Amino acid sequence: MNSKRTWQQPGSHEGLVLPTAHGQSALQNVRSNAVKTLKLGGKTALLNGAAVIIAGVSLLAPDCGSAEEKPANIDLEYENIRLKQELLEANQERERLKKALAETGNPAAIQPPASGSANAAPAPVAATADEKTAEASPKNKDFIEEPKNLSEVVVTSRRKEEKLQEVPIPIAVITGETLRRDNIVTVQDMSRRVPNLGVTSTNVRQTSIALRGLGKNSGNESIESSVGVMVDNVWSSWVGSTWTNFVDIDHVEVLRGPQGTLQGKNSNLGLINVNTKAPSFKSGYYVDGFAGNRDALQGKASATGAILPGFLAYRASIFVDKRDGAVENLDAPVTQGNAQETNALGGRIQFLFTPSDTVSARIIADRSSSTQTMSVNPLMNDPATFADGTVRSTSFTSRLSRDWFDTIRNSGQPITVTGDPRKISQDNRQVSRGDQQGVSGEINWDVAGHKLTSISAYRDSLFEPHHDGDNSTADIQHISGWTVQNHQWSQELRLASQEPGPLDYQVGLFAMRTSADVSNQRLFGSDAGAFYASNKQYALLSSSALGRQLMGDSLNNVLQTGYRNPEVTSLAAYGQANWHITDKATLTLGLRETWEHRDNIGNAGYLGGAELGNYAGATAEQIAAAQAIRSGAIGNVWTAERQGFDQDSQNWLVNPSYKINKDIMVYFSVAGGQKSGAAQFNDSTGVVENVDPENVMDYELGIKSSWFNRKLAVNVNLYNTDIEGFQSQLTVPDSTTSTGFRTNLGNINGIQLQGIELETVWQAARGLSVFLNGSYNDAIYTDFANAPCSSELNSSAPCDQTGFRIPNAPEFTANFGADYRLPLGFGVWNDFGLEWHAFLVNSYKSRANYNSSLGSSGIQDAYHVTDGGIGISSKNGQYNLDLVGRNIFDTIYLTNAGQLSSTSAPSGTYGDARYFGVHFRSSF
Asked: What's the DSSP call for residue 553?
């Protein structure tokens, strides 16, 4: 069931989903839990004892939740599930108290956190006391995801553990269980589960992450994305570093609005915060395998345990991900497989040191690599006329129709394919490479009622593009693309208060140095001259054998080169404080000052090629035509000295919140963000064209609520965001280039985002969880009178797009589905402790345009994408076996549309085709 074209899947606020309880019966655990609790000492024992008593009383409480009559054995099974869940809540409170006591050594610290408290301390990395002393357990909680009550989802986005429903900011969470169940391993996968999150990835460098329709138009290393990505407290300066499979994820948080007053680098529109599992002193192992159609084979494995009990622990993880693509290359041998395949491998090793009760250190090293045909996108169309009906004198199709290419055409093999999202025809399919690696160290020290945190990190990313570049079987280009080697060094120091009181706060210093070596290589082939020649040049040179030779040599073996080296030094000081005015009212204030130096150097030139002036018998007119073909294709030759500037920017936050009762909180925030400009050049001339800063003013008004004994959660957020000088890649007319256009970084004067986001989850019945998330997003240009016109309009004058909807921003998005679990069988089957489960997720996006110039080729009609699965698992969560499918109805949907020019047809980036398979997970 295909739509005309479609987009990519939004996501859900999965962090609130409540699966049915697993594990031993509540009655079996009460005594052992009470005994373990007494070992912690007086006050902890009393509090934990109270929790256990409450759980014990709940065992005798009648269930008044349903009047429906069932056989007695089914009632008992369901009742057992409910009791396990209630006991789990008590056990989790006990674990929180134990962790607080282990980290501080102070019994006062185990008091419950103040309502609405925020930012008091960084998320701990030290193991708890029982982790240091307990023996290895086959049911390691690091590997077996425990079910969570709606009120139990914990986030660390504000550098302390807080319940999601008590954080007064718009934040979405994907829990570890959802990540594993849905096999979510990339940022593209995450976008299917979070409303208003969009990810486009043509290749490593052309990765774009957007919130509410805005983020970064990819392909320029002079700026960072306005939507940041942070992994284990380490900022990713280059968006291409997110092209990887994340392994051992604990949970993912998506924060909306300006960030920077609390941690790391500042970002204007939001942050994706990926948290992985830390090492544990308990031994545990996790394996995950998937096998399916398109020769899919995916595996993940992780192990953790003590090296020196109580002092040194480790965690090691590895992944492999292979799958054939969905795009058939008509000019490739069958053994080569389809294009847009997946071929990735990586791993990470961690160490946790706990030399004392007040000091802990976590060291992480990771590396991943992918080799695949990334930049192979089907051609969408190539109209013969402009929008007003005027015939296009030269086009991609008309150039390939020249008699020079008759031999290829007469071979019976299509010289190119347009209009089919699952087919291409390319003679020179090559494999691109993307590598990521890094090391980080986080040290936490509890001292004088504060927590001092140091985070040091280095990361290195490499992208080597190797692809055909001409989307045909002709020998026009052998190599095309920009190679990127990105380096970053960062250091952060944070000091957070820990003593209870009316005021808690956090201050910090942040430093980062980034350098990107960006080099262009574009190697022309023997057919390039005939292709890039104008109609007049072609007519002149093709009329004789010498002229044809001269035309072929005009670009054959010419290597176009270019180089950029943007460098940034960023220093910042920040702070955020929470004033607890009453036990219900809190005022949060934040401020950040950033100082940056940005510079760049560049050049453009070419190497190789025949000496065009040495052709005996050629006329001056023929030689001039050949030289014009070469200069038109390679552009101007230029060199620019390093140039740069210094700039400071500010971020601030005012965020009052009020808890109406224990289940309802309202909040309001107003925040300002600023991102420094960029040092860059006009790619055609080398003239300095620095980019102005980007400024954001953001307003959020929301409510977080739980209903019906916390079985139903409803979160609503209203937002209004005004952006001045949004930094974006712009395609502008340029008569000096062979295409008539060039792409450069610039500013859009005004953009406004306003709308509403709804996130709900309902524990509808025993074992049944239903969620519905959606958004309305009114995203328009408020001032873009100088917008570049779409190339299909054939106009060099700017277009006024003020009032138009911005690209990549559907007006409506929705994500809804259900998760159902039920004990499998009774009697003898029940002895095996199995349960049946199924899930179904449907994503919807309304009509939108995915072309940056709002050309008609980018229009995507509304569509749905459906994922689902069914399987069995052991009740303790130790074994899971599922049959799963993604994009079950094989919807074809567009995620990005390229530009139309006289030398290229617009290419389309499409969402992944349907695939299905068997998914096995085991923890032991």
From this structure: H
Quote the distance between the C-alpha of residue 111 and its chain's center. 37
Question: Which of 271-280, 390-399, 897-906 shows the lowest mean pLDDT across its residues?
Answer: 897-906
Q: Give Cα 89 to chain centroid, integer Å.
A: 32
Which two structure tokens, joined as six digits, stand for 809? 């921003």
The per-residue pLDDT for 82 is: 52
Report the number of distinct structural domains present in the chain.
2
CA 878 to chain centre: 29
Do both 403 and 426 map to the same domain? yes
Predicted confidence at residue 364, as pLDDT, reads 98
- Name the strand (E) or helix (H) holding 627: helix 620-634
Number of Cα atoms under 13 Å in the Cβ half of residue 893: 28
Domain stop point among 256, 276, 296: 276
Q: Within this chain, do residues 238 and 179 fall inside the same structural domain, yes or no?
A: yes
Same domain for 857 and 795: yes
Q: Is the pLDDT of residue 49 over 50?
A: no
Tell me which residue has tokens 């993604």: 886
Query: Residue 289's beta-bridge partner residues?
Result: 299, 920
- Which are the contacts of 335, defined by CB distance < 8 A and separation ≥ 6? none
By residue count, the chain amounts to 924
Structure tokens at 749: 């004067």
CA distances from 34 to 28, 43, 49, 98, 455 (A): 11, 14, 6, 13, 38
**Which residue type occupies 472?**
S
Sign of CA dihedral 739, 743, 744, 749: positive
CATH of the domain at 171: 2.170.130.10
Phi, psi of 394 (to 5 degrees): -135, 140
Q: What is the mean pLDDT of the chain?
A: 82
Query: In this structure, what DSSP letter does residue 263 have?
Result: S
User: Which structural domain range is residue 169 located in?
Assistant: 154-276
Strand partners, 656: 587
Closest by CA to 692, choosing from 240, 223, 208, is: 223
Q: Are residues 289 and 271 in the same domain?
A: no
In a 10 Å sphere around its CB, with 0-12 CB exposed, 13-18 middle and 19+ buried, how is residue 245 labelled?
Answer: buried
Is residue 902 within 8 Å of residue 739, measured between CB atoms?
A: yes
Residue 819 in this model has a pLDDT that exceeds 70: yes
Average pLDDT over residues 360-387: 90
Q: Take residue 212 and report the two structure tokens written for it.
A: 């509410």
Task: Please report, for residues 113, 168, 301, 704, 896, the alpha-carbon distance to residue 579 in angstroms, rounded to integers and kept in the order given.
Answer: 14, 13, 44, 20, 45
Which has the minimum average pLDDT: 160-164, 180-184, 483-487, 561-565? 160-164
State whether 577 and 718 are in the same domain: yes
Evaluate if residue 865 carries a pLDDT over 80: yes
Identify the three-state secondary structure at position 377: coil
Handedness of CA 90, 92, 96, 98 (dihedral sign): positive
- In contact, 630 and 554? CB cutoff 8 Å: yes
CATH number at residue 467: 2.40.170.20
Residues 240, 350 within the same domain:
no
356-365 per-residue burial string, b: 16 or more CB within 10 A, e: under 16: eeeebbbbbe
Q: What is the pTM of this model?
A: 0.81
Query: Quick one: 821 and 711 in the same domain?
Result: yes
67-96: pLDDT as tens digits: 333 333 434 444 554 565 566 666 666 665
Residue tagged 């019966």 (tokens): 25
Token readout for 332 is 């490739």
pLDDT in tens, 235-257: 998 888 888 888 899 999 999 99
Question: With 80 as the cut, is the pLDDT of residue 552 above it?
Answer: yes
Tell me how far apart the 2 most distant CA atoms of the chain are, in Å.
105
As a 3-state breakdown, the chain gives helix, strand, coil percent values, each rounded to 5, of: 15, 45, 40
C-alpha span between 771 and 769 (Å, rounded):
7
Distance CA 654, CA 672 (A): 9
pLDDT per residue as tens digits for the range 594-630: 999 999 999 999 999 999 988 888 999 999 999 999 9
